[in-house]
């Protein structure tokens, strides 16, 4: 199938580049094997940008190639090397291109040289572990993943930017008129629907310069899909005025200037959006004798309708100057209304902060759905094959208040919680502040058990406090040193290895002290007996001690 040279409506699939992953790396050099995290950030993906180029007059390039993708960002590297950013791709479009969704929602109206619209934004690169390091997480063993680029389908629709639009039946002389008043050279022939694409011409009338566009001929029922003109009526939506070009020399039965005007107006009304445009009527082909008489007959009735009427001939150029200056007057009036002094102040409107950043909804199956830009973006950035990265995600969600709101809404442990919609949603079981197997979901280098006040530890603290009070004489009952440190077995009080070792050392010190006190007491007793003159059997005493 032949590809047309003029295309004014295309559907394009655009995809932004994916962001590069961050790098998890540890600096290492001689005499410094663990020099700290030095993983670089991933590069951002490129974006797909539409930009108005005045040299473009058609969308045919996107008819031939309807898929456009931007390059991806590269992954970060060690030694704080950030990944390179994917370059943006610029898609040139004609002036007057309207960007919309397949459902008809208008996204942008690109008018004026250089006007831009980001059709598909590139994904953000992931942070490396050097950027994730903090005072409480000095050596992260993970990095964030890069985000996927935006992917969407858009519709590009060209609406020619012209000041005057020419409408009328096929073979009414629109192409001949635009060729007579400008340097445009459209195709002209003596059969209907000669014009297959809109034509533009630049007209000079005194000090005024303006553009004129004609569209393929309209017929009755064009608004319902008959003929060609309905597909091109969008090209006169931006015009300051419409000129009805009426053929006064037609030999078709049932046609006359008044009925032709009524039919075209009905089709314009069915298209919609053109009711406020000023109208001019050009009664064409008055160089034919019968046509001149017909034009004189209907002029009065047309003027009674409030229309300005001009009898013209594109062959002899009769009446063309008067028509051009009438067009220029309307264009000048509209431009004067639009070109007002720009005294607008630039007002910066920063995005509000502190508002609700996520929503929690209960699903029909009894689970919970979390929606929000931040939680969904964090999920996309998380490498779930890394337990530490999963714990980091849990910390971020907890700080955001997700767990607190789930508890307030009645969520219990074991409920299914999903973050995001669609195939990329992540589903997990709700487990508020609990262990995952034998491992706690805490930040690297932290252990929640160190902050817990266990009953065994509390009892040991009470014993220590009581012992020191007895030592200082603040308790009436004397301290019983033999009880200190006894019964401190690991299975009973659930001591950590460090605490068990400290308790064992304290018990050994107590035993050595008791042994010294016993030896001193025996020595004193021996001296007393010797002073009293008692006979001491050394062998018997030794045997008694050994026994």
From TrEMBL:
Q: Where is the signal peptide?
A: none
Limits of the OCT domain: 350-432
**Keyword annotations from UniProtKB, A to Z:** Coiled coil, Cytoplasm, GTP-binding, Hydrolase, Magnesium, Metal-binding, Nucleotide-binding
Q: What Pfam families does this protein map onto? A: DUF1967, GTP1_OBG, MMR_HSR1
Subcellular location(s) of the protein: Cytoplasm
UniProt binding sites for Mg(2+) = 175, 195
Q: Does the keyword Nucleotide-binding apply?
A: yes
Query: Which ranges carry the OBG-type G domain?
Result: 162-332
| Domain of life, source organism | Bacteria
For the biological process aspect of GO, one term held by this record is: ribosome biogenesis
Every Obg domain range: 4-161
Q: Kindly list the positions annotated as binding GTP.
A: 168-175, 193-197, 214-217, 284-287, 313-315
Q: Which family does it belong to?
A: Belongs to the TRAFAC class OBG-HflX-like GTPase superfamily. OBG GTPase family.
Could you identify this protein by its name?
A: GTPase Obg
Protein's organism: Kribbella voronezhensis
Q: Which gene encodes it?
A: obg
């Amino acid at each position: 199938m032949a590809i047309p040279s003029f295309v004014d409506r295309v559907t394009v699939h655009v995809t932004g580049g994916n962001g590069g992953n961050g790098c998890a790396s540890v600096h290492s050099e001689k005499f410094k094997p663990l020099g700290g995290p030095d993983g670089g950030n991933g590069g951002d993906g490129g974006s797909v940008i539409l930009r108005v180029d005045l040299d473009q007059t058609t969308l045919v390039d996107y008819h031939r190639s309807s898929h456009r993708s931007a390059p991806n960002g590269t992954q970060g590297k060690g030694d704080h090397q950030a990944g390179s950013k994917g370059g943006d791709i610029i898609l040139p479009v004609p002036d007057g291109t309207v960007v919309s969704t397949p459902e008809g929602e208008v996204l942008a109206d690109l008018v004026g040289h250089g006007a831009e619209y980001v059709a598909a934004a590139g994904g953000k690169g992931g942070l490396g572990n050097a950027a994730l390091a903090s005072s409480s997480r000095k050596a992260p063993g993970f990095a964030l993943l890069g985000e996927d680029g935006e992917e969407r389908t858009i519709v590009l629709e060209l609406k020619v930017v012209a000041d005057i639009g020419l409408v009328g039946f096929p073979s009414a002389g629109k192409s001949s008129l635009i060729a007579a008043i400008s340097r445009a050279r459209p195709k002209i022939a003596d059969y209907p629907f000669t014009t297959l694409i809109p034509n533009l011409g630049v007209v000079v009338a005194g000090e005024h310069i303006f553009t004129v566009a004609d569209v393929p001929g309209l017929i009755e029922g064009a608004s319902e899909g008959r003929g060609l003109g309905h597909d091109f009526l969008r090209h006169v939506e931006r015009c300051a005025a419409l000129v009805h070009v009426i053929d006064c020399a037609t030999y078709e039965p049932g046609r006359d200037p008044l009925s032709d005007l009524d039919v075209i107006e009905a089709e314009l009304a069915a298209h919609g959006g053109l009711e406020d445009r000023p109208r001019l009527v050009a009664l064409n082909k008055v160089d034919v004798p019968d046509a001149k008489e017909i034009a004189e007959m209907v002029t009065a009735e047309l003027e009674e309708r409030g229309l300005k009427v001009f009898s013209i001939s594109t062959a002899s150029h009769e009446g063309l100057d008067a028509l051009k200056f009438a067009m220029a007057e309307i264009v000048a009036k509209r431009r004067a209304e639009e070109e007002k002094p720009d005294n607008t102040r630039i007002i910066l409107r920063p995005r509000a902060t502190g508002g609700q950043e996520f929503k929690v909804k209960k699903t029909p199956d009894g689970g919970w759905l979390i929606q929000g830009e931040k939680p969904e973006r964090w999920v996309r950035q998380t490498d779930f094959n890394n337990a530490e990265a999963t714990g980091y995600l849990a910390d971020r969600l907890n700080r955001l208040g997700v767990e607190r709101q789930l508890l307030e809404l009645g969520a219990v442990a074991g409920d299914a919680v999903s973050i995001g919609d669609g195939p990329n949603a992540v589903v997990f079981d709700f487990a508020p502040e609990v262990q995952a197997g034998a491992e706690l979901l805490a930040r690297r280098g932290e252990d929640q058990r160190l902050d817990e006040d266990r009953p065994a530890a509390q009892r040991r603290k009470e014993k220590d406090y009581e012992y020191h009070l007895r030592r200082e004489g603040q308790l009436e009952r004397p301290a019983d040193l033999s009880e200190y440190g006894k019964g401190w077995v690991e299975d009973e009080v659930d001591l950590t290895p460090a605490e068990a070792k400290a308790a064992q050392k304290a018990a050994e010190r107590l035993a050595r002290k008791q042994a010294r006190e016993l030896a001193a007491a025996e020595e004193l007793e021996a001296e007393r007996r010797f002073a009293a003159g008692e006979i001491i059997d050394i062998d018997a005493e030794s045997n008694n001690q050994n026994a």
